[in-house]
Design a protein that fits this description.
Rossmann fold, alpha/beta, 32% helix, four-stranded antiparallel β-sheet, 279 residues, binds adenosine-5'-triphosphate
Length: 279
């Protein structure tokens, strides 16, 4: 697939540099020393862009984000081959806290906030790793809604408000790359709109680079510059987000049903083209 950016949104204010901020190169991940989940996965995230990572359940999207964030050891997972490079440096063996200090942030699936703490306390906790305890004013300015909720206990917020807080907390570490794992999952449609608009604003107004994992392919591709589709631990298709959104196979896979009424695997789609491997 061509990589032309004809109809793609413009990169945010953060710049149009060609060197990728993140590159994942032929990464293999194994859980519990035997369960092979990522099988030579490669992707890049250019500086200043939003990149969507799409795929069916169990394809390995969350595992990819955890490999980038350095969180696999907590789940008995390991990168056994390949490399993760951030801003040109090999961070494959760097621990998770160091990666946060370098600017890698992950908002995990499920809106994980500290439920017993207030909104404000959640933000303060988010700034701990990089010592940015005072940076919450910047977040409140960008997200006035959180400012009005600052004294509220996080556990009583709506799902959408919790998601905003989870993102706000990640922003407190002053990331250069914000990774989001299914931020729209389980939200009411109005809140889904707000969350996607917010992610787009972060990119357009602050130039923040984002890697977005989503089941909601249509919405993710609408705000992304580029997209990757993965299946069974590998990338099977990539391209400009606008092209992927128009691709008949992507439409059929994500929106349609197979002849027998079953959702098709991407591999079974007629025009499926195998992606060129990196090496
Ligand atoms: P979903 O959309 O359902 O969240 P996903 O694409 O994010 O799926 P992963 O959560 O990365 O996929 O899971 C990929 C595969 O790895 C699945 O088969 C899953 O069972 C397995 N897996 C994930 N985490 C672990 C773990 N901690 N230990 C063992 N296997 C795991």
């Amino acid at each position: 697939m061509s990589t032309s950016e004809v109809a793609a949104p413009q990169p945010g204010a953060g710049g149009a540099a060609t060197t990728p901020l993140l590159s994942v190169e032929n990464v293999e991940v194994i859980y519990d020393q035997v369960i092979l989940v990522l099988r030579g996965l490669s992707l890049t995230v250019p500086n200043g862009q939003i990149v969507a990572l799409l795929g069916s359940n169990g394809a390995g999207k969350s595992t990819t984000l955890k490999a980038i964030a350095g969180l696999l050891p907590t789940e008995h997972g390991e990168v056994t081959d390949g490399a993760v490079r951030f801003d040109g440096a090999d961070i494959t063996r760097v621990d998770a806290a160091q990666r946060v200090r370098r600017g890698v942030a992950l908002v995990m699936e499920g809106r994980r906030v500290f439920e017993h703490l207030t909104v404000h306390e959640n933000l303060v906790a988010g700034g701990y790793t990089r010592g940015n305890r005072a940076d919450y004013e910047r977040i409140y300015e960008f997200l006035p809604r959180l400012a009005t909720l600052r004294s509220r206990v996080a556990g009583y917020l709506s799902g959408g408000e919790q998601q905003m807080l989870a993102i706000g907390r990640a922003l407190m570490s002053d990331p250069r790359l914000l990774m989001l794992d299914e931020p729209s999952l389980g939200l009411a449609p109005r809140m889904v709109d707000e969350v996607f608009t917010f992610i787009q604003r972060l990119n357009a107004e602050l130039g923040l680079t984002a890697l977005l994992v989503e089941q909601n392919a249509r919405r993710a591709l609408a705000i992304a510059h580029r997209g990757y589709i993965m299946e069974s631990g590998r990338i099977v298709l990539d391209g400009a987000a606008s092209e992927l959104a128009d691709n008949p196979d992507v439409k059929e896979f994500y929106l349609g049903l197979g002849e027998a009424g079953a959702r098709k695997r991407y591999r079974d789609v007629k025009h499926y083209k195998r992606r060129k491997r990196w090496l």
